[in-house]
Amino acid sequence: MPDTATPDSTGPDSLDPYEPTGRTVPSRSRDRASYDREVVHAILDEAYLCHLGFVRDGAPVVLPTLFGRVGERLYVHGSTGSRPLRTAGQADPGIAVCLTVTHVDGLVLARSAFHHSMNYRSVVVHGTARTVTDPEERRIALDAIVDQVVPGRSTDSRPADAKELAATAVVRLDLDEVSAKIRTGGPHDEPEDLALPYWAGVVPLAPRYAAPVPSGDLDPAVPVPDYLSAL
């Protein structure tokens, strides 16, 4: 049966790091891995797009989708007709998934093609996705997903009605088996390449929000909300 536990919005009682497992210890560049809970939360909270991986009919599938974090849980929503979301609710313990989030902070250009890289922050979560059926938890989850994209938006829009809720599936993934991986700094060229006449360094990248563009049918008297201006 689907798990209908109420979400814990306050998170754990401590900020102890996540426990590394065989699936969360990287095979390469282990020094870049982090299990610090605050680091993981910060990377997740700065994102709203994730990639959800699972196995369907014996083959891997990875879908881009929106998510929201509430304490030590992530929520993903989609259509009730979505095959993976249907599968997550068909039987206990749900469906095994891998969820990833990545921020690209810079392009690292080295003198050699081999040592080109990226500066990034990423989180990988392994676990079991379970369908949320409790009405209050579904409300909290859907509000969290909206606010993950634009903080404050859930209270400045019409809530989903009964028909819309019936067409929406919500699944929960607990943050139990989690790791972050981070790369910073410049290129790592070989000593013999340092005198080569090629530019080397980092091209920083950062998200940028342009000025909000009102809908063509919006009443001109409706102002741009402060939470949008703040972006």
Question: Secondary-structure map with pairings?
Answer:
Layout: E1 33-34, H1 37-45, E2 49-56, E3 59-70, E4 73-79, H2 83-88, E5 95-109, E6 117-131, H3 135-149, H4 162-166, E7 168-174, E8 177-183, E9 201-204, H5 226-229
Antiparallel strand pairs: 1-8, 2-3, 2-5, 3-4, 4-7, 5-6, 5-9, 6-7, 6-8
Radius of gyration: 21 Å
Quick one: CATH class? Mainly Beta
Count of strand segments: 9
Strand order of the largest sheet: 2-3-4-7-6-5
- Characterize the largest beta sheet: strand count, sense, and whether it forms a barrel: 6 strands, antiparallel, barrel
Provide the domain count. Answer: 1
What gross morphology would you assign?
globular
What does this structure look like?
With 231 residues, the protein is α+β, with helices and mostly antiparallel strands. The protein has a single domain, classed as Roll (Pnp Oxidase, Chain A), CATH 2.30.110. The protein is built from 5 helices and 9 strands; from the N terminus they run βαβββαββααβββα. The chain has helices at 37-45, 83-88, 135-149, 162-166, 226-229; strands at residues 33-34, 49-56, 59-70, 73-79, 95-109, 117-131, 168-174, 177-183, 201-204. It has a 6-stranded antiparallel beta barrel. Strand 2 (49-56) and strand 3 (59-70) form a beta hairpin. Residues 1-5 and 9-13 have low confidence and may be disordered.
